Amino acid sequence: MSRIVRVISWLYAIAVYGFIFLPVVVLVLFSLQATSFPIPPFTGPSLRWYDAVLSDTRLTSALVNSLLVASISSLAAATLGFLSAWGFARFVLPGSGLLRGLITLPLTVSYLIIGMGLLVLFNWAGLPKSLLAAGIGHVVINLPLCFAIIYSQMGDHQINIERAARDLGAPEWKVLLLITVPVMAPAIFAGFFLSMTFSWDEFVISFLLTRFDTTLPVEIWNLLRSGLNPKTNAVGSLVFAVSIVLVVLFELTLLRRRKA
Amino acid sequence: MTAPLVDIRSVSHRFGQHTVLKDVSLQIEPGSYTILLGPSGSGKTTLLSILGGFVTPSEGKVFIRGEDCTSVPPAKRPTTTVFQDYALFPHMSVGSNVGFGLRMQGVDGATRAAKARAALALVGLAAAFDKKPHQLSGGQRQRVALARALVIEPAVLLLDEPLGALDLKLRRQMQDELKAIQKRVGTAFIHVTHDQEEAMALADHCVVMNDGRIEDEGPPERVYARPATRFSATFMGESTILAGTVTEAGDRTGTVATPVGPVSVPGALPVGSGVVLAIRPEHLVLGTAAGSVKLGTARVSDIVFQGSFKRVLAVSVEDPSLHFIARLPATATVRPGDTVAVSCDTDQIILLTD
Fold it and tell me: Residue A61: which CATH number?
């Protein structure tokens, strides 16, 4: 009986992981296709489509744009998230619970709604469609995330550490810079890397808010409009690889935090 | 007589509706070791936070070295605090922790390191300079916190239950060291604790607090031998408490009617006034070797062997609500269930107004 249960649970696990990862495996596999169509039979392995991606200036400049938007918007989101978390954790504010709820609300709103809202707002404010606009959009979606991660790690123990610094003569900005930021560094980095991950493959907001210079997911979408070919698989695999690196960095920083 | 180093004038404090300090006044002399002793909720920690500048009192003033410091922030007042959880900076080395206060004063790196090393040597941790706080034991972190607070030469050092997190043996050892360090540096220490043994061992000046008020203050010997209130008679050491009414008042002595009969007491109070008599455990005599004041008979309910002595609990036969607490030599042969005569000397009775 227990044997059957074990076999079934193994089968179930394989089915679940297969369901999640099979599309990615297929994507990566056919990015190594030697011929012109990403359909069976597999003719590779060959790196010719990666070569094609890296010699396509539209794709490489989009890749650079994506990296820029991701790192700068994540830096802004982590900084603002940290400051708001610190404010909520250390000061008694009127309507603190309500304000905390409001700051995390964008997590529940669809990117499409946020993107459309920003489109209307920027139009009205006279800010043209650009990487800057998309970057601001990414700050809007990632700030609540950074806030939630950093706020959850701000414990009461750090209150006394900050007090000790103040007691020894540190002005408030030095307390923040020399004590709070280093002590909170794991949570801040975790927020930063998770924001990078989300910004890196975000499509809807970038699609709505950029025009000439655009990010990699939007460029891939442009590519897809002319039909499937192994080049889209290759660039998709690159995006996936970078995401994995970012997620691993995120996990590592959180893990180190728990051990300490 | 010079002005007091710290002068707390009529300080009251409320957290919301709850009053935690009620019109507290206290003066602290330079170079003294002051203990604020009281149970949790007595307001002792709040008083320390007010001295440190972390809390601004609702009413009253705090003067340090003659200056009004009532609402001066912690960074700008001549006090430093040793926190109960030590509050060391986990990302800095021990040396940088100790040098932090000097760094904030703009002292250059070399001087800072030299002073930090000297402060660590003072607390017996010269070798820990390059270590990180998490590599140290609880007692060592405690010393680092002490060195960090002392290195900037505060006028007053505030210690918030500094030994609370240590085990008993380490606690007694650190207790001796604290006293030695205080004598060496000569800084005034103000130390909060709920441990009366710690208070008696360390204090030059002992302040007993209860329910937001100062119940008693003075040298620990005086507070123990002649407590001013019923609370301090039971909190600073144990006492047997007898309630009664004055029936006769002489010149220097009086007689008090108690449930165990008339008791003559030192000191005179008006006839008819209610009083409380407190007797320290070491002054109660059980058995035949009777003192001058008879306190009836009692049935021994419990004996606790404590090594050098036996702590004996006995219930009065005349008044079962009266519990005697006595301290007998370790060789005493009483047993639970024995009925013994209880007595003491007139001089040893502490007379308290109720």
Answer: 1.10.3720.10
